[in-house]
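Before a colleague's protein record goes any further, I have to sign it off. Would you go through it and say whether the fold makes sense for this chain? Take the sequence as given and treat only the tokens as open to question. The record follows directly below this note.
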Amino acid sequence: MKQIKAFVHRNRVSDLIHALAAGGFKRLSLFDVKGLLRALSAREQQYSVEFGDQVISEVQMELFCEDDEVTRAVEIFQRVGRTGQIEAGWVYISNVEQAVAIGDARKES
């Protein structure tokens, strides 16, 4: 199993969610983050006193999938997440050692 983390511009998130769902990907989480991606416009940037630099609000999308689905998932992130800039975001892929369902774990007597 793989974990795919993608840092994308906020305006691409809705299309990415729909494209991933259409591709059969369901284990997706979204996180609002501050990042240093190149802003698409001045309205997207804000100065962060905490970080001492210009930042933008971007979204970290986290997807879990089987090893044989990685290429297809990354292709969706690249195709749909594209903004027209050379650096529209980043996709990171990591191995998942184990996944355990929280479900109905009843103790046996």
Summary: The chain has a mean pLDDT of 85. The chain has one domain: 2-95. Helices lie at 13-22, 70-80.
